[in-house]
Write a structure and sequence with these properties.
Immunoglobulin-like; single chain; mainly beta; three-stranded antiparallel sheet; five-stranded antiparallel sheet
Length: 144
Amino acid sequence: MNKLLLKLVITAGASVLVSGLVVAQLSPTTPKATKVRIAKGPEPEITRDYLTIIRWTTNNPGGLPEHYGVVHYGTDPKNLSQTAKSPIRLNPGHDSTVFRVRMERLKAATTYYYTVESEDAKGTSDGVKSTVKQFTTDPQGAGR
């Protein structure tokens, strides 16, 4: 399916509306994977007192082009009541997908426990969930 968009051109600090329409293509649906599995990770990509990014790689889950990486986390491994989500657009030409989820406003020098999963734009799980992992944030001010 195509969408029609107006084209906005910015030249030398001024914007001009071009009197034509540009056709933008939506990402095609990728064939659904028979089984989604985590091939690498999950692991912290960056851990600070104020921010942590968790990264993992799966085979391409397929289906709708828009997906979300989801991290369930908390300071008690039996109560992962906090959730962080980050959107990603699947590339039908790739056989794997790298998810990166950003968690902000974490407590300094605190151990957090987490699991990861992914879902499509409608909230349907891709059917894969990691075991419980952990990371510890930096003390206040470290890494800044």
